[in-house]
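User: What would this chain look like folded?
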Amino acid sequence: MKVSIIINTLNRGHTLENTIKSLFYLDYKYDYEVIIVDGNSTDNTTEILDKYKRYIKIGNCPYANLSMSRNIGIAMADTNYIAFIDDDAIPESEWLTNIMKKFDKEDVAAVGGPVYYSNGINFQKKRFIINRFANDYSKSKSPVHSFPHSFEFYGVIGCNSIFRKDYVLKVGGFNEQYDYFLDETELCSRLIDYGYRIEYSEDAFVHHKYSTSAIRNNEKVFLDYSKIIKNVIYFIKTYENIIKDKALINKTIEEKIKDVYNLNKHYFNNNIINETEYNSAIKSIKKGIEEGFKDSKRG
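Assistant: Here's the prediction, encoded as structure tokens.
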């Protein structure tokens, strides 16, 4: 089965070229295409894309919105299987072959795989389990019952995931309200609620470098929490019809906001960030709170 591999990129020219090159060494016996959607990068990304334009499709996203960029890539795809890998990640050669094996049943809508840190030793994430409060249960030893409207459910990591295009379009594609963070998780929740399954391929490995971005430094420390806070609030409030306990929902949101404030304070007290970065992060948290509640009321 032919696959479309989509890379959504923004100002990562220093890592993007290696990711593109790695896709030429996949051992997948069927055909596949590579689609790069650029979010108006201002570094050397354009030059890199021009270098490989004979071998890839190139799209443009007018805004720094990951869900919008993903939807643009999906619209460009000529296949029904849509794989996503980050612009700072490298797949092992068997990645695509192994992850595609999981589409052996008609109700499988998406498959995720394990993600190594770039050292190739420690895992960033294996099977991804999350709940409607955006709590990560991936390390839980308890059995997970993932079914339509279940509190806990299986998800995928965006840098190592593949979806059936027809099922994604049936549930409305990526929600562009999620400009960054929880975008693939929210999509998985809708796929599951529609009756589809999310599978996991334990031998479809990707190595993820975790490069710097506009909101995160190379030590994986967030400097801007606005989009994270906004989307966490919006995500939790979305499921009021499932959880049906507004007091618990509001308490959970308050605790998550408090945790972010405490994390930012920890970074400052331990000289991980300076005073300017600390104050800027505080402003971003307040901005995220305001936008999250505003967006949840808008629906």
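Residues 3-208 form a domain with the Spore Coat Polysaccharide Biosynthesis Protein SpsA; Chain A fold (CATH 3.90.550.10). If you want, I can go into more detail on any region.
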